[in-house]
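Example 3.2
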Amino acid sequence: MRTALAAGALVSASALVLGAAPAAPATSPPLPARMADTGGGTQLITAVAAGTRSTTGTVTWWDRRGRNWVKAGSAAARFGAKGLVEGASRRQNTNTTPTGLYDLPFAFGIKAAPSGTLYTYRPVRPSSWWCEDNASRSYNRWTEPRPADCRASESEHLVAYPTQYAYALVVGFNYHSRVHGRGAGIFLHVNGRGATAGCVSVPADAMRRILTWARPGRGPHIAIGTTGGRTAITRY
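Structure, written as tokens:
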């Protein structure tokens, strides 16, 4: 009996040596399923860079269907010219993109909203500004017109950026509980010529697709981070 078992074991081992395929590795769960938080809604945008010094990466938008997250689309992305930094420690005018999990208060654009857009969409007019003056009561706010206490030299005249702000989504970084000096005017917008001043950007077609995909009633958020380390997107 022992001899028969040994022989059988030898045959089984030989079968493995002769090419029996090993079991396939388990598929890794989709990125949102590996994150600490996704904002509580059923739509999520992830913006991922390889590391904090990276200026490029990938934006992916996801839908939650039941218990599962399903990729709805993706595009190459650009980040700040000085890379990425933890949002809570970011400083203004550093050309860094803040990492973290944020809501998306509203959309805006110089061009008309793409057909099918349901998100609140503000048209950019000649009088539209984003106040970035730390001394202003309107710090990190859309203003129309620019208030007297908000210096033009410290703010963005939105209509002056016809390419980048053709379509955009406001990222809720430092938006609801404002800390002056931390940063203002962080958006998801259309690519310009290169890296951004701290925003996340994607090609125009991707921005149009995101705007027609986003549904305010589904609580979309954006998570910005790196593939690993202290700013790993899975921490947010």
